[in-house]
UniProtKB/TrEMBL annotation:
Pfam families: HEPN_DZIP3 (PF18738). Residues 42-189 form the DZIP3-like HEPN domain. It comes from the Eukaryota. This is E3 ubiquitin-protein ligase DZIP3.
Length: 220
């Protein structure tokens, strides 16, 4: 009878997956926010966002529905000076880093969507790595489990990218790797990672639709 039961992953493998989700959502998001703040310091952010060139770029992204109304409200609150990157989710941070921070796709690949070679340790390359390693982790979402070997490999890759962007997170990363997580916390971080992936998929879809519309207008 027992042989007919499904092969459920061990609790340890479930925890491995949740820890990777937490590393990406908590530390990954924080280091991306730090990177953004280093380019656009918080005290001057409202001035930057309202500058003609940046505002025009953001309006274009809103028109393409890359930015949704909730994100727009966080960028332009009723009191302009109250805007804070602390209120930006990781999807919004990624959009801003790619579009209003003077960054370009990694020279090594020429793309925001290709994994850079190990030799490329630029800021842009490590931003890309965090997103693509997120995809690698999300690939295990169906079973919400990761074996120890895969966990250690992904943890090392993600940690290296995070530390390249913010060297002060070593102690936090070490603690999170072994810190106990209750089922509620595991579910919380798994959902946040899933939401991040789904938000990115929506953006890709919106950009694809915009490109199609431009092509149709060109050929009319």
């Amino acid at each position: 009878m027992a042989s007919g039961l499904p092969d459920f992953a061990s609790t340890q493998e479930n925890t491995n997956y949740a820890r990777l989700c937490r590393l990406l959502v908590d530390v990954g998001c924080t280091v991306l926010r730090d990177t953004f703040d280093s380019i656009h310091p918080p005290a001057n952010l409202h001035v930057v966002l309202s500058s003609p060139s940046v505002f025009s770029t953001l309006q274009s992204l809103r028109k393409k529905r890359v930015l949704n109304p909730l994100q727009w409200g966080k960028l332009f609150p009723a009191v302009a000076s109250s805007v804070s990157s602390a209120n930006f989710d990781v999807t919004l941070l990624m959009v801003l880093l790619r579009n209003i921070c003077g960054l370009s796709p990694p020279v090594s690949t020429g793309s925001w969507d290709k994994l850079p070679p190990d030799s490329d340790n630029s800021t842009e390359a490590n931003i890309v790595r965090i997103k693509l390693y997120r995809n690698d982790v999300y690939g295990h979402a169906t079973k919400a489990s990761v074996d120890d070997a895969t966990f250690n490999a992904l943890w090392q890759k993600i940690s290296s990218a995070v530390l390249a962007l913010g060297s002060g997170y070593g102690d936090v990363i070490s603690r999170l790797k072994t810190e106990c997580m209750d089922p509620g916390a595991e579910a919380h971080y798994e959902k946040l990672l899933s939401d991040w992936k789904k938000d990115d998929d929506i953006i890709k879809e919106m950009l694809g639709m915009s490109i199609m519309l431009i092509s149709e207008e060109f050929f009319i």
